[in-house]
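Recall that a protein's primary structure is simply its ordered list of amino acids. Everything else, from secondary elements to tertiary packing, is in principle encoded there. The following example makes that idea concrete.
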Amino acid sequence: MRIVVLVMLVAPGLSMLLLLAGRLELAGMLTGLAAGFLLRSEPARAALATLCGSLSAVLIGQVLGDGVDGPDFADQMAGWPGWPIGAVLAYLIAAKGLPPTSARGTSSAVLPAAVAALTAGALGCGQLVAAKVLQMTRWEDYHEYDGPGWYRDLTSAILYPAASVVIASVIASRMTAGRERFLVVPLAAWLGCALTAGPVQYVQALGVSGEPALVALLASLAGGGIGAAAAAAALRHGGARLGLVSFILAFTVGKVTAAWLEISDVTWAWLELLFALLALITPLVLIAWVSARTASRDASLGSGVIAGVAGPLLIWSVYLTVGPRFYDHASQSNPYWLAWATVPVALVTALGAASLVTSVHGTRESVRPDAVES
């Protein structure tokens, strides 16, 4: 009930009040503070509720602010990155602060931290180079056939570091154990990506005459921060780890395939139709599988739901940071609203799959031989 109140009332209400005050970028952080206190001792749910609250805030803000002059409500909400920061605050407050660290635990995390930094840097730079080769990012004032594309490239500048930090943190976390790793390893991955991929992104954006390349560098830092927050949660929740990694890989394959179809000028209608169907079905199947697997392993409905929505929430956080930017053509606004719609769909899918598995698990438990004998 507290989650429903936060998502449906607190987040939209704060957003509309801050819109009137002209400080909408603070909505995410204030919602995170409220979530942390409303959901004490439930840090994962507090963070999830904060990001889900942005969904209802966008919807209600768009409807109520439709007749208001000025920038689009969803564009104004982009806060670099206000809502992901709010989710982190919610997590820390609900968890009652950071876990205690020890000298032994910190020293044992040195090698994994170094591996995380190097891996994140390599993944970040590799994605930037590949995206440039495949023309997924162009860093130009004007994209042929697509109008101005600055914000589309800016979104990618956040997405690649975020994905790199998550994957690198998960890989490096296998080398250490203990509560310290959830903080040290993601921060090291963030730093490694910032020191390598950040400058590469800055150099690539120097060709844009109308926008400062420094914004691209800041986007890289913001993306790494979003990835570090997601990785920290994933290292403490096995289901979220599985959900994030699998969804990132599937999302990356989809983007690369779409870019290949575009630059290869494929005219096969059946291939484009097949790709469209796969792009629609694959996320749903993946979310259902992750949710069912986690719910079965943990025998927990909530754990399965968190695992299922972790990946879609990460992608939504990235697009939420920049906004739909309708004046930047459909290359930014269409993926933004698709990311927005994917989260409630993922929530329903994950809830259904996890509910089915937990009910079957409960039925099996009730008919065990020892239960019958008793």
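Residues 82 and 255 are 26 Å apart (CA to CA). The longest helix spans residues 330-366.
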